[in-house]
Design goal:
Radius of gyration: 14 Å
CATH class: Alpha Beta
CATH architecture: Alpha-Beta Complex
Distance between the termini: 33 Å
CATH topology: Sufe protein. Chain: A
Order of helices and strands: HEEEHHHE
Mean pLDDT: 91
Oligomer: single chain
Low-confidence stretches: none
Strand content: 15-25%
Strand order of the largest sheet: 3-2-1-4
Shape: globular
């Protein structure tokens, strides 16, 4: 189990140091802002929807390692999916980090399974998902985890 935990930690650190899909997204059709005031996480998620699916996803902002890594991995996981598929991933991911579900169908997102052992970090890991949902619904309200 220790080797697996070390691997998961390395994946999170890698995505924090070199986040994927980081930066403004040219031609974004949807954008939302999320804020976690307790941790200092602040992100913007940008989407480009075409033909009923997410063709591109990007993000900007700053935050703790869990927030940045979760957002980075999320952007890869949802690209090419429909809003309905994204909703399914959202439900599975949030259940997993809260300790309510199994991480098996989540692929790389499963690295956040250990977050359930640190309840204060659940908000860091899920901020991007709530922000993504706000972008999909074209909400202009800032998403907050408080």
């Amino acid at each position: 189990m220790s080797d697996l935990r070390d691997l998961y930690q390395e994946v999170i650190l890698d995505h924090n140091r070199a986040p994927r899909n980081f930066g403004p997204l040219e031609g974004a059709s949807h954008t939302a802002h999320g804020d976690n005031p307790l941790c200092g996480d602040s992100i913007k998620v940008h989407l480009r929807m075409e033909a009923g699916e997410l063709q591109a996803v990007g993000f900007e902002g700053s935050g703790c390692a869990i927030c940045v890594a979760s957002t980075s991995i999320m952007t890869d996981a949802v690209c090419g999916r429909t809003p309905e598929e994204v909703e399914g991933l959202f439900l599975s991911f949030t259940s997993m980090v809260k300790g309510e579900g199994n991480a098996a169908p989540l692929g790389k997102l499963a690295v956040f399974g250990g977050v359930r052992e640190f309840p204060m970090r659940v908000k860091c890991a899920t901020l991007c998902w709530h922000t993504l949902k706000a972008a999909l619904s074209e909400s202009i309200q800032t998403v907050t985890t408080e």
